[in-house]
Write a structure and sequence with these properties.
Elements (H helix, E strand, L loop, with lengths): L26 E5 L4 H12 L3 E6 L2 H11 L4 E4 L5 H8 L6 E4 L15 H29 L2 E6 L12 H21 L4 E8 L6 H6 L2 H7 L8 H12 L9 E4 L15
Parallel strand pairs: 1-2, 1-4, 2-3, 4-5, 5-6, 6-7
Helix pairs in contact: 1-8, 3-4, 4-5
Bound molecules: NADPH dihydro-nicotinamide-adenine-dinucleotide phosphate and 2-hydroxyethylsulfonic acid.
Length: about 270
């Protein structure tokens, strides 16, 4: 009889239940959690045992999510463009798993026809919002000598495409921030991960194009990623042993070869 066939000689160790909840005891904060990738990430981290604080501007959406996820989950309304408001999220808290996910694209016009107000919104949210979050999260993590900081970039931060211009620039900036963090913080014990998805069907395209029909056409004849595909990748990264830092995760739909090449059946 092999040892795996035999009955355990002693009761399971007290830590055994934690095996199915590898994030038990972790304090997580997810920005942009009122929809799409952020909401699903909150669900997955919660299922793995983390106490999750969900952050976005739409308070009612967050309240519904908190009700769904149950005790231990909290909602905080915040616009990540506001540095002071982001700093206040971290006061008196000890978040050791932070997912900087809030972001958006606005428009697909070429630069000469772009709207500077949309540019400001994208830059302030996707770049400065991430910087505000990182700046607020790091001191506590440095003090504790551990933590996971996950940035949601995009394949749009690794390639460009027509009409992507400013959105591409913001996601290239996220990649640069990730690279800079690795250098600035090496030795701190903090792990940095950038998760860079291709096409994910969320509210992203509705926000970007301003119209549900136009958004639906983005995914015509192809199978996009879903929020779970991204959330699962985040979960994989943050559940590795402490000496393992999954740095860069690029996730494509099987039907997408580049930001410009998508296989469609019609
Ligand atoms: P959704 O539109 O579904 O979700 C975006 C989230 O960001 C919402 O919760 C929204 O909440 C929040 N958000 C936007 N602006 C702010 C702000 N100023 N302050 C706080 N929260 C804000 O899109 P996705 O889930 O797809 O997008 C999540 C991230 O993934 C973004 O960074 C996006 O760039 C990135 N990404 C998306 C891809 C896709 O194809 N969908 C592919 C690659 C990357 P609220 O409006 O309530 O504030
Ligand atoms: C969003 C995906 O391909 O529209 O980051 O840039 S894409």
């Amino acid at each position: 009889m092999s040892s795996s066939d035999s009955a355990p000689a002693s009761p399971a160790p007290a830590s055994a239940p934690a095996l199915g909840r590898p994030l038990a005891g972790r304090q997580a904060l997810v920005t942009g959690a009122s929809a799409g990738i952020g909401a699903q990430t909150a669900r997955v981290l919660n299922a793995l045992g983390a106490a999750v604080t969900v952050v976005a501007r739409r308070q009612e959406r967050l309240a519904t999510l908190v009700e769904e996820l149950g005790p231990g989950t909290r909602a905080k309304s915040c616009d990540v463009r506001d540095a002071d408001a982001v700093a206040a999220l971290f006061e008196g808290e000890a978040y050791d798993l932070v997912v900087a996910n809030a972001g958006l694209g606005l428009g697909v016009a070429p630069l000469h026809a772009g709207d500077p107000s949309d540019w400001s919104t994208m830059i302030d949210t996707n770049v400065k919002g991430v910087l505000h979050t990182v700046r607020a999260a790091l001191p506590g993590m440095r003090e504790r000598g551990r933590g996971d900081l996950v940035l949601i970039g995009s394949v749009a931060g690794r390639q460009v495409y027509p009409g992507g211009n400013v959105y591409n620039a913001t996601k290239h900036a996220v990649k640069a921030i990730y690279d800079a963090l690795r250098l600035d913080e090496v030795g701190s014990g903090i792990r940095f991960t950038t998760v860079d998805p291709g096409m994910v069907q969320t509210e992203f395209s509705v926000v970007r194009l301003g119209d549900q029909n136009a958004a639906d056409r983005v995914y015509d004849g192809m199978t996009p990623l879903g929020p779970s595909d991204v959330a699962d990748a985040i979960a994989f990264a943050v559940t590795r042993p402490a000496h393992v830092n999954i740095g860069e995760i690029v996730i494509w739909p099987t039907d997408q070869a580049s930001t410009r090449d998508v296989h469609r059946t019609q």
